[in-house]
Amino acid sequence: MKVSELGEFGLIDRLAEMVSSVQGEQASNLIIGIGDDTAAWQCDGSVQLATVDSLVQDVHFSLETASWEDVGWKSLAVNLSDIAAMGGQPEYVLVALGLSGDTDIDDVLNLYRGMIDLAREFDVHIVGGNIVSAPQLVVNVTVYGSVASRDKLLTRSLARPRDRIAVTGTLGAAAAGVEMFGKGLEFEPEVVDALREALLRPVPRIAEGRLLVENGVKAAIDISDGLIADLQHVCQASGVGARIEADLVPVAATVESSFGKRGLELALIGGEDYELLFTASVECIEKVSKAASCPIYVIGEVISDNRYQVQLVDSNGNPVNLSGKGWDHFRVERGQR
């Protein structure tokens, strides 16, 4: 079987099974291994978090549309977002670069300037890494963080029937940015700027992740692969189903105005919004909404039937069909991402 046949998430499942079968008792301090936004393990005074992600030229970005500073910013942002999804505080960063021999030194310095600008915003420290020769630019970033204790940890596996499903902020602008660049679409300058910013300069919801924990939320994930796909990850980890009401999904205003009815599809399956998707009781969500500096939108409910599946319905409860399900590196052809 080829990787393209099994798919990204099928491959992750196989690797997780393989690793867990040999670790056994040796990983007694491990709280969460492969399968969530970060790994987590118990240390003497806190729970440590670790996550890693890669950005590859002409797969995740194009230097025709992204500056080197943009690439640096985003390569760190996607990892900080994983820490946010666990309710954690990011602390230290390792950076490994793959560079061709004719890469301009100033470009590499600009890439680091982008990372440093974002690192300063969240008081995280770049402490090391590696550089190797590669035919094109590859940026691998590892972020370490922590939470105070195991009960202060957000995970994908604690969604429960009758929980409401909510998201921070609006969705679809990053996917709209992919469409704009990939298809050469033309919009008013303010729309171009908004979509470009959403795609290339996402701001991880670190404060919001910690706010969720403080107000009793237990289950969360960041929206990287698309709302439907990421919610399905939560359903699979928690052994539940989910029902989303399409009319409640918060499509970004610039996406609605520029893409019309397609805006909902971009918000549901486009991905790369790096907002937080979480489930909790009505009371918990009300507390979060009052304290959050960003809008919180309730979009559906966790259900006990249709386990592992996400239902999309209209306001009358009728099914709504979509043409896709979300991002999978080996099963979706969608241009730079």
Give start-end ranges of low-pLDDT stretches. 327-337
Enter the CATH topology name of the largest domain: Phosphoribosyl-aminoimidazole Synthetase, Chain A, domain 2
Any idea of the CATH class of the largest domain? Alpha Beta
Radius of gyration: 19 Å
Largest sheet: 6 strands, mixed
Distance between the termini: 26 Å
Order of helices and strands: HHEEEHEHEEEHHHEHEHHEHEE
Approximate helicity band = 25-40%
Q: How much β-strand is present in the residues? A: 15-25%
Instruction: Tell me which CATH architecture of the largest domain applies here.
Output: Alpha-Beta Complex
Name the shape in a single word.
Answer: globular
Number of helices: 11
As for the number of domains, it is: 3
What is the number of strand segments? 12
Structural class, by secondary structure, is alpha+beta
Strand order of the largest sheet: 1-2-3-6-4-5
* Rounded average pLDDT: 88
In CATH, the homologous superfamily of the largest domain goes by the name: PurM-like C-terminal domain
